[in-house]
Amino acid sequence: MDVIERFIAQHKAVKERLDILEKITKMIDSDTSIWDNVHKMSGFFDKEVKEHFHLEEEVLFPIIRRKLPSDKQKILTEIEAEHKPILKKLDEFKEMSAKHKKLSSRISRENFIKISMDIIESMITHANKEDEKLFPIAKEFLDFENYKELEQLYFKYLNI
Ligand SMILES: [Fe+2]
Ligand SMILES: [Fe+2]
Fold first, then answer.
1. Alpha-carbon distance 100 to 52, whole Å?
2. What is the pLDDT of residues 65-109, one digit of tens each?
3. Ligand 2 centroid to residue 56 C-alpha, Å
4. What is the CATH code for 3-157?
5. How far is the CA of 156 from the centre of ligand 2 (A)?
6. What is the 6 CA–ligand 2 centroid distance (Å)?
7. Widest CA span of the chain, in angstroms?
8. Per residue in 19-65, pLDDT tens?
9. Of 135, 159, 158, which Cα lies nearest the Cα of 147?
10. Where are the alpha helices (H) located in 28-160, listed in sequence order?
11. 55 CA from centroid of ligand 1 (Å)
């Protein structure tokens, strides 16, 4: 599996988790104990998703940026700019799930469902855009040496 395929595999994992989140948010109104799962989900976002974004920003995107011709740079700039608002939503999600233990009013549940669905939608749209629009172009322009460099930086970043 090359490094780009690893990112695609991580997207797949996120999409699978998000299916679970979608079920959880639908169940929230009927089952209060489900909030424990929400805390787990927040932990998943915090660790896996943030790390994925950082890896893209620190390792993958700089190499792609170097290799893409100028007329193809726009999609990378656009995709990279999507990380910030998603990270902001993840922080709100975290705050909200942390607060929940004290605050379980109907209004906080409604807010929670709204923000969860919003996260699901924006993350899936973002991952699909990378899979369908960015990575195919990147594969076209990266050569063997770039892949080698990418792999070294990737594992160095993860301390493996
Ligand atoms: Fe991304
Ligand atoms: Fe990604």
1. 27
2. 999 999 999 999 999 999 999 999 998 888 877 776 655 555 566
3. 7
4. 1.20.120.520
5. 19
6. 10
7. 56
8. 776 666 666 555 555 566 677 778 878 887 888 999 999 999 999 99
9. 135
10. 35-44, 50-55, 61-67, 73-81, 83-100, 106-129, 135-141, 144-157
11. 9
Residue 2 to residue 34: CA distance in whole angstroms? 37
67: burial class by Cβ within 10 Å (0-12, 13-18, 19+)?
middle
Q: For residues 154 and 3, is the Cβ–Cβ distance under 8 A?
A: yes
The pair phi, psi for residue 132, each rounded to 5°, is -95, -35
User: Ligand 2 centroid vs 59 CA: distance in angstroms?
Assistant: 12
Distance between Cα 155 and ligand 2 center (Å): 17
Report which residue type is found at 37: N
Sequence-distant (≥ 6) Cβ neighbours of residue 71 within 8 angstroms = none
Measured in Å, residue 24 CA sits from the centre of ligand 1 at 24
Measured from the alpha carbon of residue 135, the closest ligand is: 2
Q: What pLDDT shows up at residue 151?
A: 93
Global pTM reads 0.84
